[in-house]
Amino acid sequence: MAISEIVGVYDADGGLLGEVAYVWGKVRGTRHCGLCDITHATVRRKREWDRMVATLPVPVRMLHLNEVDEAQAAAVAATRAPVVLALDGGAWRELVGAQELDEMDGSVAAFEAVVRSRLAVRDEA
Questions:
Q1: 73-81: long-range contacts, CB 8 A cutoff, minimum separation 24
Q2: Is-above-0.85 flag for pTM?
Q3: What are the domain boundaries of the chain?
């Protein structure tokens, strides 16, 4: 089966309170999300991110911890957030893990290279 969708799950809750709690933790140095660093500049989403996502061969959605469905929550629990999940044959699996996201150091280009290489490998299988 081929990957039909990608979902990035931030290590933060969505909504006003979730966003404020994350920003406050980031300012204090107690919270960090490598995926947030890749997708967002200081306050808003990076234009580079939006351009890159539009060129990927599968749809990409970004979710917060309190926005995932039951199957996605199980996949996140099996690893840890932040994580990028792939819908592969009807099941969610890890495509890019938290440590690797941190190692990308906020780079959209690094993210794109890894995702494209993993999509290509999966398409060859």
A1: 76/9, 80/11, 81/9, 81/10, 81/11, 81/33
A2: yes
A3: 3-124
